[in-house]
Write a structure and sequence with these properties.
Chain lengths: ~425, ~425
């Protein structure tokens, strides 16, 4: 049986689990991949650091470049830009295959890595970069290879899903549930990347690239976070049989692919509405397959390691027997759709002076912008002050440009006291 | 570019869609597979039958054997045992690859087909046989190749899920919702195979074979249908925050793999509880990945055709470039666990005479069988007659044998008037 040399870069939460599985399950991995996977070294900054898992000390090295130069397969779990980027380029350039879970790096430099891999015949795989343990790369590339994907919607950030789910269950405010998420270790001390949607945006770029076989990067993604979602928004959604989720959405439109991340209202019967806690899920619509969903743990040491090892076995199988090239050879430049052209529907909550003619003025403005109303509700959950009425409008699908203009014109009406929330609605 | 000859056997609901996609999307399929996929003929019983899709008449033939003998790839969508079995054997024996969605045939003869394919180097793929469009074969074989699956639970029959979901939504009786399913075309005139669980059992055998890399057949599956589920069962479950689903379950136990199909209570927060209508979903537990779920359309012409074409492209890619052998080479004889040894928990509803000491007698019987009680509820949904109390017991996990013996002993108590229902509970 052939032996393949595996270099591990990084030994944090995920890296330690990958090392453990490579050592503990060596026999199973050899049986499944057709080659002995020999862990030849683990590059770390400090060899003396204590790890969560017992690993033979002789495996640790601080010389990552020398380690990369002797490997057939390089598993990069350092995170961040450097030295991860240089080490991946070094590996791919000499024809070593690379497995990485580094979403920020992939979103920024993925297309360049693809070219390097293609030129040297190396394999580049990154199932772990999107939605942790959930198999999504291969189902899209393999299982849906005879179909055409039209839309992908994903809950791809566990921290924000935990917070929104907790707000939905308890009725508490965003700040309180963020604090709880931090206490439980679901959110970091600086939660910016999660709650502002930046982490989800990086994953959206990768997902869109896979689903539509084009190269998207972070700059192509319209991004809004969840910091402005109030307990009142969540309660009003609940009252309407809906739930608020932070979704990464990539969709084929009239003149390209639109990619966006924003808080989104979904009916409670939608499969994504049932994704609780820190779990992730990717909902896919394809021409023939219809609606599919892939659900699982989006983070965590062992789950992410499972995805890394799945990639490792796949890479090893191909190194042993030869076989089809991975998806990356198919990438083409992206045609990014202008955000203003994306079709969506709006949920608008506002408080207005309770006087004759207000409703007529508002419905006239909506119609004037070519938008049609699905439901208009007077009352709702909020308590009304004297002479103030609460309104909730849900529109049919229209362009972002028309909807934004509608909201702007409504907000300028003298009778409108406040636009309390504007949220997008997805699903049927 | 290489040309691969594709023979289609059968032109029913799925076959017609496969033919349409092969003809309409020929360019996309060639680009993705690296070979031109030429549909050389469609074997049908009667060439004059009207089809749902416009297909050039010259493609139809009644000589299936001659068609198989000229093909590189044979797509079998005839259903039933013969001539499907002989034609698949004929194709595999001469080294032609086979794609089939014939679950009943695979459950009965899959192991023999695997041997034939392995010997001739042909590929055998059957993603469409389990849960229609849902990618499950490849995620299990590829994505989880670095992990160990411990349990698979699936909603794999759309008809019974439609009926149970409708009972849950409307509160109606089984017979009424079966009639509605028949009217809407979700259930056949003779619904036996669906409502008795036989269709789900065939899929359970295939799923268990994939997940545990062993050969199971129909005889290894313990099977109970949904015909005895009453509106009262559904209402009581709802009252307890649960829902009843027909699940196919394959699980690694102490002394082998247990495979079973039966109505199952799940908490409403469980991801499988959110699978509505005729949709299917497969829930997978793996040692490192944790909980995963795959959701989608379990039947229908176009969705099933999507899975068939995904397999076709994968087979073509390997015929063009070479590559790893499919999963079938890994099959080993199954170690089937005795049903009596399977660990599960029971939900027992019963009516008892409202007299002192009854509760004590029952809890003593339960304890005597080594079973422990999770909840005991007096009252519940049913209206009580004079002097009759309704009890509901949910047990912790124990063996089937101990639980069945417990129910038998309880039923023999003089104070017990009726055991109204016994259901198994899954999920945490």
């Amino acid at each position: 049986m052939k032996t393949l040399k595996v270099a591990l870069l990084g030994c944090g939460n995920v890296g330690a689990q990958v090392a453990r599985i490579l050592l503990e399950d060596a026999e199973m991995l050899a049986e499944r991949s057709g080659a002995k996977l020999e862990l030849v070294g683990i590059a770390v900054r400090n060899t003396a650091t204590k790890r969560a898992v017992v690993i033979p000390e002789g495996l640790f090295t601080t010389d990552a470049e020398a380690l990369v130069d002797q490997a057939d397969i390089v598993i990069e779990l350092l995170g961040g830009m450097e030295p991860a980027s240089s080490l991946i380029r070094r590996a791919l350039s000499r024809g070593a295959s690379v497995i990485t879970g580094n979403k920020a790096l992939l979103a920024a430099q993925g297309p360049e890595f693809n070219v390097l891999a293609f030129e040297s015949g190396a394999q580049l795989r990154y199932e772990a970069a999107v939605a942790g343990a959930i198999p999504i790369l291969r189902p899209i590339y393999d299982s849906l290879s005879g179909d055409t994907i039209t839309k992908v919607m994903g809950i791809v950030n566990g921290t924000t899903n935990f917070i929104l789910d907790a707000m939905d269950t308890t009725g508490a405010a965003f700040a309180d549930m963020l604090a709880e998420a931090q206490e439980l270790g679901y959110a970091e001390a600086d939660p910016t990347a999660d709650v502002q949607g930046h982490d989800a945006a990086a994953k959206a770029a990768i997902l869109a690239s896979l689903a539509f076989q084009t190269d998207f990067d972070l700059a192509d993604v319209h991004c809004e976070g969840i910091t402005k979602i109030t307990a009142e928004d969540v309660a009003a959604a609940k009252d309407a049989g809906m739930v608020i989720k932070l979704l990464a959405i990539a969709e084929r439109g009239v003149n390209g692919i639109g990619v966006r991340v924003h808080p989104t209202l979904l009916r409670r019967t939608h499969p994504l509405a049932a994704v609780h806690g820190a779990f992730n899920a990717i909902f896919v619509e394809a021409e023939n397959a219809g609606e599919l969903m892939f659900y699982g743990a989006g983070a965590g040491g062992a789950p992410t390691a499972s995805a890394v090892l799945g990639d490792t076995v796949a890479v090893a199988r191909r190194l042993v027997t030869g076989g089809p090239l991975p998806a990356i050879a198919l990438q083409q430049p992206a045609k990014v759709m202008d955000f203003a052209d994306i079709a969506t529907s709006y949920w608008i909550s506002l408080s207005v002076s309770d006087e004759p003619g207000v409703l007529a003025s508002i419905t006239e403005i909506v119609a004037h912008h070519g938008v049609s109303i699905e439901t208009l509700l007077q009352g709702g959950l909020s308590e009304t002050e004297d002479g103030v009425a609460e309104l909730r409008i849900v529109t049919h699908r229209s362009t972002e440009a028309a909807l934004a203009a509608t909201v702007k014109t409504i907000s300028e009406l003298a009778a409108v006291q406040e636009i309390t929330s504007v949220l997008r609605v997805e699903g049927n």
